[in-house]
Amino acid sequence: MTQNGTGAASMIRARAPLRLGLAGGGTDVSPYCDLYGGMVLNATIGRYAYAELAHGADGACVLRSIDQGLRVRCVPGETFTPPGGLALHWAVYNEVIRRYRGGRPMAVELSTFCDLPTGSGLGASSTIVVAMLKAFDEFLGLGMSAYAIAELAFYIERVACGFHGGRQDQFAAAFGGFNFMEFGPERAASIHPVQVPDWMLCELEASIILYYTGTSRVSAEIITDQSMNIRGGVKTALQASHALKDEAISLRDSLLRGDLSGVVGSMRTGWENKKKLSASISNPRIDAIYDAALQAGAMAGKVSGAGGGGFMMFLAPLAARPRVVQALLRFGGEIGACRFEPRGAHAWRVRSAAGASLAAAAAGPICA
Fold first, then answer.
1. pLDDT in tens, 127-142
2. Is 221 helix (H, G, I), strand (E, B) or coil?
3. Radius of gyration of the chain (CA)
4. pLDDT tens across 249-290, in order?
5. Which of 21, 121, 144, 351 has the fewest beta carbons under 10 Å from its own?
C-alpha cells in the first residue's frame, strides 16, 4: 500500500452492514443485561454505512455526513462543538487521536453515508461509528480486531457521547453474519457465530419482507422507558425480558435445525413479549400494519430495533407474498427484499481515479 511520511494511506473507504434484530432485542439494554444477562440473535443484511478518510488540507479537520447534508471544518486542538448530526464523527476522531496518537492531532477529511436513515431500527448510528473506526484502523495501520472495534464503538456512542441504546448493534456491524450474543455486567460480551444451513438462508431470504413504515423514531426515548421499567421492578416488563431471552435461544436452535415452523413460532411469541417492555414499542398504526399483513397471509412479523416505527419485517410464504406486499403498501411506506451479508466491517484503499471521493461529490457550504 502506498503511504506518505505519516504511515497513513492517501484515501481509505470502509463499510459496515446494518442488522436485523431477530430475537432477544431489549435484553442487551442496561440494567437488564447487567443484572440477569442478555441474549440476542441478529443477522446483518446487504444495507450499509460507509466511511471515507483522507488527508486534510491546511491542517484542518473536515467532517461530513453526506446523507444528512452536514459539513463542518475545524482546526484540531481548538475548542469545537459540532452540530448534533456530526457529534459521533467528532467523538470518533478525538478518541482515535487520544488512544492511538498520544493526543497528537492530525488533519483529515472524514465523510460518511448510510443507505438508511437513523431511526430505521436497523442499527444505523452504531454501524456508522463502526465504519468510521474501521476506516481509521486501515488508515493508521492499527490492526484492530472486530471485537476491539465493536467495544470502542460502544464506548464512543454509549459512554463518551451518552446516547442511550443496547449493546448488539456495534458487534453485529463489526462481525457480520448471523450471531448469537451474550451480554453481562461491566460490558462483558460473548459473540457466537451461528452456522445457518444454506437452504434455510435461501428460504429466509425468499420469505422475509422488509417494510419501512416511513416513520423514523428516537430509539433512546423508548429504551429509557424500557430501562426505567426494569429498574422499577415492573413485573410484566421483567417477565417479558426473561421470555425474550428464552426466545433468542429457541430461534437459534430452530435455525440450526432447519426448523422453519419453529422460527415462525419464536418470532410471533417474541413480538408479543417485546411489546410488554414499554408502551412506546408499538402503537395503533403498527398494530394495524401487523394485523393487515397477517390477514393477507404473513406467518409472523415484528418491528426491528427499539420499536415505535422504522422497519418491520414479516415472514410470508412465496404464494402469499404479493398479497402481503399489497396490504402493506396501503399504509404507505416502502417494501424491500432481504439479502443477508456474511461479512462484517471491512476497509479498502481507493486505487484509481475512478473512485471519486464522497467529499468531492458532496462539496457544499460549511455549517456554522
1. 999 999 999 999 999 9
2. helix
3. 21
4. 999 999 999 999 999 999 999 999 988 888 878 889 999 999
5. 351
Note the pTM of the prediction, 2 decimals: 0.91
- The one catalytic residue among 67, 169, 198, 225: 169
Range 140-178 burial, b when 16+ CB lie within 10 A, else e: beeebebeebbbbbbbbbbebbebbbbbbbbbbbbbbbb
Among candidate residues 13, 91, 5, 88, the one with its CA nearest the CA of residue 54: 13
| DSSP β-bridge partners for residue 173 | none
CA 4 to chain CA centroid, nearest Å: 33
Decide: 210 and 337 in contact? Cβ < 8 Å.
Answer: yes
28 is catalytic: no
Cβ count near 332 (within 10 Å): 12
Closest CA to 211 of 319, 128, 125, 321: 321
Identity of residue 29: V
Which DSSP string do the residues of 117-141 spell out, in sequence order?
-TTSSS-HHHHHHHHHHHHHHHHHT
* CA 118 to each of CA 212, 214, 294, 305, 318: distance values in angstroms, whole numbers, following the listed order: 12, 12, 27, 11, 30
Burial class, 364, CB count within 10 angstroms (exposed 0-12 / middle 13-18 / buried 19+):
exposed
Q: Enter the C-alpha cell of residue 102.
A: 498520544
Residues 6+ apart with CB under 8 A from 147: 171, 174, 189, 191
Q: Where are the alpha helices (DSSP H) in the chain?
A: 32-36, 87-100, 124-140, 146-154, 168-175, 198-207, 219-231, 235-257, 260-274, 284-295, 321-329, 358-361
Query: For residue range 147-203, what is the model confidence (pLDDT) as tens digits?
Result: 999 999 999 999 999 998 899 999 999 999 999 999 999 899 999 999 999 999 999
- For residues 209 and 335, the answer to whether their CB atoms sit within 8 Å is yes
What are the cell numbers at 8?
497513513
What is the three-class DSSP state of 201? helix
Cβ–Cβ under 8 Å, residues 250 and 266: yes
